[in-house]
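Hello Y.,

Per our agreement to keep a running log of every chain we model this quarter, I'm adding this entry. I've kept the format consistent with earlier entries: sequence first, then predicted structure.
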Amino acid sequence: MSLRALNYLELESHLDRSGIGTAADQQRAALERTDVDVVTSPWRGGSLPRAGLSAAAGRGAFADYDVAHCNLIGPGSVAVARHANAEGIPLVLHTHVTREDFAESFRGSSAVGPALGRYLRWFYSQADLVLCPSEYTKSVLESYPVDAPIRPMTNGVDVDALAGHEDLRAEYRERFDLDGMVVFAVGNVFERKGLTTFCEVASDTDYDFAWFGPYDTGPHASKTVKRWVSNPPANVTFTGWIDDIRGAFGAGDVYLFPTKNENQGIAVLEAMACGKAVVLRDIPVFEEFYTHGHDCLKCETRAEFSRALDLLARDPDLRRRLGENARETAAEHSLDRVGERLVAAYEALLDGRVPE
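Predicted structure for the entry above:
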């Protein structure tokens, strides 16, 4: 009989195109390549109301699964964790949220950091295994400290989902009036992801810049996001939501990601899988995965970012070489490898062992 694993992402419908949503999608795609039977709802009947009716009828509220794997930190995940611990079901909690990377995301997010850190220490410490995307994130969790085994595991990259991005190049460049060497970013627009640096570097250069991804201008949006998206430099386009993320990777030429804090950065791997030259902020997490001058360029200051873009504009051979090496780096994060590691972790837990 095959192993039956819960892969749960509460608020899933609200996290489409987010890094957490993409990570969960990729875990499921990776597990589809294995013999694991994946269920995505912990509730008997597939929804909380139906689970309530089932519980009232004496059949229990939770579905049947051998391993519980949660990707978020809210009340639904807490309920799953408590049920798993009560029933002796191995519990895997996946770290996509830390106190550090929550800062500068939404209005007031930095202020809640201390309380969030205490909550995360308690929440993650319930696990039989905590998975996280990087050694850097492991060190962050150990500093809280989280009292559970912690193992780094790449989020991976779904290369197949990006196939055909080149065919969308002309359409998306025309749609957003982009020309020449296009400098771009992909994902939700947050200051933590380097929004101010992105816009300041754009104002220092003449290249077309595009940030492909949704942004919030409502009450939860930060003042910085509101300021930049309402009054961007003349050469910066904020596209908002786009229907096909492949269009972003087709339209762009140089992926600029001056982020201040990441647990890994899935969009970087996606850009690399598409063979794009990548320019990153030199932060600790990227030391694990990428090498300056080989598969990316790393910068620290506004001036360095501008010089890196000028260099890539002058030297298309360098841009091509970085892109080719980046594609090879992305191949090391294939979903086949992710699936194999997830299965090995689940089987170890079921055998009463902590995965290597």
